[in-house]
Amino acid sequence: MLNLILFGPPGSGKGTQAARVAEKYNLLHLSTGDMLREELRRESALGKEAKRFIDEGLLVPDEVIIGMISDKIDATSNVVKGYLFDGFPRTQPQAEALDNLLSLKNTQIAGVLALDVSEEEITRRILSRGESSGRSDDRDESIIRNRYQVYQNETAPVANHYKASNRFVLLPGEGSVEAIFNSLSEQIDRLL
Ligand code: AMP
What we know:
9 helices, 5 strands
């Protein structure tokens, strides 16, 4: 299996790039943000619990996220060539849980590809996405700033978990979608 993490702040282009990378390398794209929005849409119990966190730009509790990913891995590990995680893991406990879940399937994370984008560019991109995404957390500048703060405080340190084992690569996240995709592909080809 080839398992990769696309890492970076909200609005760094993970979703756009993940869809392309997953297609090119035949990986299952797992975006916890998309999975949560689907639960919200279905008005499931999980969706209702997650909504108050998402609306504030806060992280949904680890046990909810880990349970969701664990179910997904159990249901698909026999049929996929690998996973592309997008927006997950976002905390140290999530990173540790992911290691455990993958080791139960006799596999691991091959690399973490991080997109580097400035806070100003991120705020601009998310507000512009908010005009068409229908996401309320993309429309309010104070919630966007909150999401960025949460990223800095809780998610950015997760990079150390992977840097320690030399599995972390930082790439420029500003430029054309095509140029960023090419540099991601170059890094992934090195891991194959
Ligand atoms: P995203 O689409 O990745 O920007 O996620 C949107 C929102 O969903 C985030 O602001 C969080 O409230 C929640 N969320 C998504 N993924 C996670 C995660 N791995 N851990 C905790 N909360 C998450």
